[in-house]
Design goal:
single chain, Beta-Lactamase, 5-stranded antiparallel β-sheet, two-stranded antiparallel sheet, 5 helices, cytoplasm, membrane, Coatomer subunit zeta, cytoplasmic vesicle
Length: 183
């Protein structure tokens, strides 16, 4: 028996019509864009009539284990191979679900997700990398995502503060050198 690290085939975040909001594929099981869209549509069609609003649901579809949960107009899906542990996939789903809730300040809906798509994609990257599960603790994921999203802004604000503090010295140097020519 060969042991392996638990892995994820894809993470899908679809709207209430089955359209993409954010998706990440980690396996070559769907080699073309058309194959990916067809898979997403099939999964959405199979699960849309279920009531996965309070707890995650698990289904077997087309040889894959799919764990999913719905909130407002967003549908969260985690796909694993047929030999993956459903509880691990459910833990990944709950981690994503809770982290997105923290990032969106519990306003988990399509509009807020699209407005913060960069943070949601960072969140997915913090959870799974190349199909390997890295983290499932939502507060850790949201914290890393928020700090990664803020790095660019923090350095810009630091630059502004540095320039503001340096301005008198720059002006003093400029005027001193300019008027020294005439003395």
């Amino acid at each position: 028996m060969q042991e392996s690290c638990p892995s994820v085939k894809n993470i899908l975040l679809l709207d209430s019509e089955g359209k993409r909001v954010a998706v990440k594929y980690y396996a070559d099981d769907w080699p073309t864009h058309a194959a990916k869209l067809a898979f997403e549509k099939s999964v959405f069609t199979k699960t849309q009539k279920t009531n996965a609003r309070t707890e995650a649901e698990i289904t077997m579809f087309d040889g894959y284990i799919i764990v999913y949960k719905f909130v407002q107009d967003l549908h969260f899906f985690i796909t694993g191979g047929d030999n993956e542990n459903e509880l691990i996939l459910a833990t990944v789903l709950q981690g994503i679900f809770d982290a997105v809730g923290l990032i969106l300040r519990n306003n988990v809906e399509k509009r807020a997700a699209l407005e913060n798509l960069d943070l949601i994609l960072l969140c997915l990257d913090e959870i799974v990398d190349g199909g390997i599960i890295l983290e499932t603790e939502s507060s850790v994921i949201a914290g890393k995502t928020a700090s990664d999203g803020m790095d660019g802004m923090a350095s810009l604000s630091e630059q502004v503060i540095s320039l503001t503090l340096a301005k008198p010295y720059i002006l003093k140097y400029f005027y001193r050198n300019k008027y020294n020519k005439y003395i």
